[in-house]
Specification:
The structure holds 2 protein chains of 2 kinds. Chain A is an alpha+beta fold. Helices cover about 50% and strands about 15% of the residues of chain A. Chain B has a single domain, classed as Arc Repressor Mutant, subunit A. In chain B, about 65% of the residues lie in helices and about 15% in strands. A 3-stranded antiparallel beta sheet of chain B has the order 1-3-2. The longest helix of chain B has 25 residues, at about 85-110. Chain B is globular and about 55 Å long. Classes of the chains: A alpha+beta, B alpha+beta.
């Protein structure tokens, strides 16, 4: 800058010298001093212009002009404060929405493994059932993968687990991951303090190494970041564990968007769940997630081919357990674990919708700028007449737009910061690890800046070029007359407002489709009655219970609850219908039924206690319900569903038929009606129920159901109180009414439809403002014409029609284009519209009617103003 | 108006550079001096426009064909004096030969009999 100033001074002095010398010479030739100075100046020409051209040579011009433009732009924007505020606010909405959703996408999808080095080389290995469905991997399969696949540098299991930390008096529920010894090697993470798993701790000996690594946050909150924590003992699920290390602050675990508190060896799984050692030694107990790092120079396709050929071999070698099974590799962001699997679709849809809002914002801003450009024609023409180059005007206007865009993106970032925790709204998280808050980092800032630049270019360039293309003389003439914009400008504005309406119609139809889909799904009867039922889940493995202890707890709690006033029924089961995420299945073999060659006999099931069907009002069609006698010491029994019978027992008697599962034969003792298991919108599939007293699977925990004739809240309070009285160390979760709980199954649709409705509302509001602006401007422009028409005998009705027609023409064109666009785009979201057709005529008609009504309203005000024009005033109107 | 100047710069560009470099051959000179010298030596025919002269001087300086320094003029005034550099001298030679070629070519077209 210093250099530039001296140069500027030098140039100034150089030219002053020139003028002085020229004047002096004239004086020497006998001229009067004053005349001489004047003549020298005249001969020299326009001093400022010479300076400017010379400066151009030096290339200082750009920066100086820019500074000048900024100062001038700020002055203009301050003068038109209302105008600026509207623009900045509009942009803030558009940019804020996009930045917020981008920051979520970044946290969940783009940066799934913060703290890991080269995270893009980390992949997930998912086993595939014969039906092609993904399933978790058994520990034995994992060992085979780990020991035989060469194209994967390292491999680890990782399984999230709710754990109880503390003593008999007080336990704290935390979320941890059980992992292989080399978990941190796979992710390339170094300890912040202490060490990670080493030596013997990495072998496969079960329940031999009660050691644990803490997260930075947990270390900070529990141990005040003290180095003494290393070597200290912590009780997890009633067993003492030794703390060996602390993970770095930016590392939160292996699941996108989630934050874990500690990591324990997977070989401790049996001890943590009080199941002994069999679960890791059973190839059919598929419950682990597998992470791997690609070997250097290997791409995912090559590694996937190796995995596939190994599984082809394994499915034959272990035909008894793995026939038809295979496995594949997925990049982390496509993983079925973690929150991204549920968020990928809603986030993409939201990103699309907020993109539409941003386009409308662009059109609105462009429209406002065009109107203002038209108002400033006189200013521009004077500046051009004074010698400003057209490009200079373009730059001036672009600077103003950039300033507005910068202010808009700052305001948008404020919105984003404010909404950073709102990602939680998108997830029906009840009982899950903490969610990482989306943060505004460099990537997000870059995105916003890029977007703001794009918006400025899109919205600002057209008006700027427009202003520059005008002919000075025409402008001065036309501008002096009525200040009306040229035909071209009007056409551009008409195009803009029509596309705005079209975009708003697309948003409206989209929201309508999702809303309708949601309400249809909501109306579907699930086959059971969730009203007046209180729920709570108990985690027995965290309490260190074995099957007997859990059974005693449940029986005791049930007796206590049945004594509560208002309670009409109590039961428990290991699965709640319409939970998020599929339940468990079992490979079945039905007596007398021969499955097809590749038929999937993995049948979903629930493990229940007696009274379950009566409590949920599920009709018993045949046979009997379970009783307390159906326990471990009596023959195994099961109850099957109507669809199970239809498929597997088409003829003959159902009751008494044998079914093979869990390595044993069960007898069918009853048939119940079908209910919705995973989704309200699903078709009936075979399903069965087995007594929880005969098959105990602690890893799922158990859910207690309490039906009451009184208030559900009282029942919930009773549940908590009585559970505490029976045994306070059993962690409770998901204490809620069953209605709320099953409502979660519609969560994605509910959230998509409500957020889309909000975005569509914003889109529509903006488009209406745009239409109103164009119409109001058009009326102001045509005041003269209207005056002439009226003085020639036009009635108010004619004028009203004239204006309304124009406005409605925009809306109609927008509706038609928008409807066609929506029809095309709706195909992309068909998969999410489980119940509504993407071409639902009712929604299109409603959207069109709504658009026209709003357009009428937006047009009515300017049109009425037009009818009040006094012909005499109008003709004189300047 | 600015374009008018720029047009003239373009028109005169090659020749004005040549004239400036040639003028500075006779010794360092300030901007006003250069314009007077060109006017006088051309028999008052060539009037150098200041709007072309200063941009040209600054451009030549930027290309390091001339250099400048502030000195006291014969009228005891501080002025910015330009002098031709070694690179500028080389440039002058090539510019001169190009000019000779150009003027030969043009006279050839205007008066073909001479060839």
């Amino acid at each position: 800058m210093k250099r530039k100033e001296t140069r500027e001074e030098e140039l100034h002095e150089e030219i002053r010298n020139h003028l002085e010398m020229a004047a002096q010479e004239r004086v020497e030739r006998g001229a009067v001093a004053e005349d001489a100075t004047y003549a020298a100046r005249r001969e020299f020409g326009n001093v400022e212009l010479v300076k400017e051209v010379t400066r151009d040579i030096r290339g200082w011009r750009w920066l100086e002009n820019f500074a000048q433009d900024v100062v001038y732009g700020l002055r203009m924007l301050r003068r038109d404060f209302a105008f600026t505020a509207v623009l900045v606010l509009t942009l803030a909405i558009g940019l804020g929405a996009n930045t917020t959703i981008f920051s979520w996408i970044r946290a969940v999808l783009l940066n799934p493994l913060p703290g890991a080095a080269e995270p893009e080389r980390v992949v997930e290995l998912e086993s595939l059932a014969p039906s092609g469905e993904w399933v978790p991997t058994s520990y034995l399969d994992f060992l085979d993968f780990r020991d035989h696949i060469k194209l994967l540098e390292s491999m680890s299991v990782a399984q999230p687990m709710a754990l109880a930390v503390g003593d008999d008096v007080y336990v704290e529920r935390v979320w941890g991951e059980v992992v292989s010894g080399n978990f941190f090697d796979v992710l390339h993470v170094q300890p912040e303090l202490g060490r990670f798993f080493t030596g013997d701790e990495r072998n496969d000996a079960q329940n031999a190494h009660p050691i644990v690594v803490l997260s930075h946050a947990y270390w900070h909150s529990r141990y005040g970041s003290s180095p003494q924590a290393i070597g200290a003992t912590v009780r997890i699920n009633r067993t003492p564990y030794t703390i060996i290390g602390v993970a770095p602050e930016n590392f939160h675990g292996s699941m996108a968007g989630l934050s874990f508190d500690l990591w324990a060896p997977a070989t401790m799984y049996g001890q943590l769940t009080a199941t002994g050692t069999w679960m890791l030694r059973d190839r059919k107990t598929r419950m682990f997630r597998v992470l791997a790092r690609l070997a250097p120079g290997v791409n995912i396709e090559q590694a996937r081919a190796e995995v596939r050929s190994l599984t082809a071999f394994m499915s034959k070698a272990n035909a008894d357990t793995s026939e038809g099974m295979s496995a594949t590799l997925l990049p982390i962001w496509k993983s079925h674990y973690g929150i991204q699997s549920g968020l990928l679709a809603p986030l993409s849809i939201l990103m699309g919708a907020s993109g539409v809002v941003l386009l409308i914002v662009c059109a609105n801003v462009a429209n406002l700028l065009l109107a203002r450009t038209a108002d400033r024609r006189k200013e521009f023409s004077i500046r051009m007449a004074l010698g400003a180059a057209p490009m200079r005007l373009v730059r001036q206007l672009s600077t103003e737009v950039l300033l507005i865009a910068a202010a808009g993106s700052l305001a948008g970032l404020v919105i984003t910061a404010w909404l950073s925790g709102a990602l939680r709204w998108l997830l029906p998280l009840r009982d899950a690890p903490k969610l990482l808050a989306a943060s505004i980092d460099g990537g997000v800032l870059l995105f916003t800046a890029g977007l703001a630049l794009a918006v400025a270019a899109l919205a600002g360039l057209a008006p700027a070029l427009h202003a520059a293309r005008e002919n000075v003389n025409d402008m001065l003439k036309e501008g002096g007359r009525s200040g009306s914009a040229g035909l071209r400008s009007n056409r551009l504005r008409a195009l803009l407002v029509t596309s705005e309406m079209a975009l708003a119609v697309v948003a409206l139809i989209g929201a309508g489709l999702f809303l309708k889909s949601f309400y249809i799904a909501k109306g579907i009867h699930p086959g059971f009655d969730p009203n007046q039922v209180a729920l709570a889940k108990f985690n027995f493995s965290a309490a260190g219970f074995d099957a007997q202890q859990a059974d005693a707890f449940c029986r005791h709690l049930r007796e206590q609850l049945e004594r509560q006033p208002g309670v009409t029924a109590v039961s428990y089961a290991d699965y709640v219908p319409l939970s998020i995420g599929a339940g468990s299945w079992e490979d079945l073999q039905v007596e007398g039924y021969v499955p097809g060659r590749s038929e999937n006999m993995k049948i979903y099931r629930n493990l229940i206690a007696p009274g379950f069907f009566t409590l949920l009002k599920i009709p018993l069609l045949e046979g009997r319900d379970l009783t307390m006698q159906d326990d471990a010491s009596h023959p195994k029994v099961m109850i099957v569903t109507r669809e199970f019978v239809r498929r597997f027992v088409p003829s003959g008697s159902v009751l008494g038929r044998k079914v093979h599962g869990w390595g044993e034969w069960f007898t069918i003792v009853g048939v119940v009606d079908d209910v919705k298991i995973n989704r309200l919108t699903e078709k009936a599939a075979p399903y069965f129920y087995a007594p929880v007293r005969q098959i105990y699977r602690p890893e799922m925990g158990l859910a207690f159901y309490v039906r009451t004739s009184g208030s559900v809240n009282e029942a919930l309070a009773a549940l908590r109180r009585e559970a505490q009285a029976v045994d306070g160390t059993v962690p409770i979760s998901d204490l809620t009414s069953m209605n709320d709980y099953v409502g979660v199954s519609l969560f994605a649709q509910k959230i998509a439809s409500s957020l889309l409705s909000v975005l569509a509302g914003i889109a529509f509001l903006l488009a209406s403002i745009g239409l109103y602006g164009v119409m109001a401007y058009s009326v102001a422009q045509r005041t003269n014409e209207i005056g002439i028409r009226m003085s020639l005998g036009a009635q108010r009705r004619d004028v009203l029609q004239l204006i309304a027609k124009q406005g409605l023409a925009f809306a109609l064109a927008g509706t038609v284009v928008g409807a066609i666009g929506a029809l095309i785009l709706a195909r992309l979201v068909t998969a999410f519209l489980v119940t509504a057709s993407p071409a639902d005529p009712l929604i299109y008609a409603a959207a069109a009617a709504f658009t026209m009504a709003l357009a009428l309203a937006a047009t009515a005000i300017p049109a009425r103003r037009a009818t009040r024009v006094d012909p005499m005033v109008a003709l004189r109107y300047e | 108006m600015k374009e008018r100047y720029q047009n003239r710069i373009e028109l005169l560009q090659g020749t004005l550079d040549l004239l400036i470099l040639q003028t500075l051959q006779w010794g360092p000179q300030h901007g006003y001096g250069i314009s007077i010298a060109i006017r006088n030596r051309s028999g008052e025919i060539l009037q150098v426009d200041t709007g072309s002269l200063y941009p040209a001087l600054h451009r030549l300086e930027k290309q390091k064909w001339i250099a400048s320094e502030w000195k006291i003029s014969e009228n005891k005034q501080r002025a910015k004096f330009y002098r031709v550099t070694a690179a500028g001298k080389k440039r002058l030679t090539s510019e001169r030969s190009r000019w000779a070629q150009l003027s030969d070519a043009i006279s050839g077209i205007l008066d073909p009999k001479k060839i």
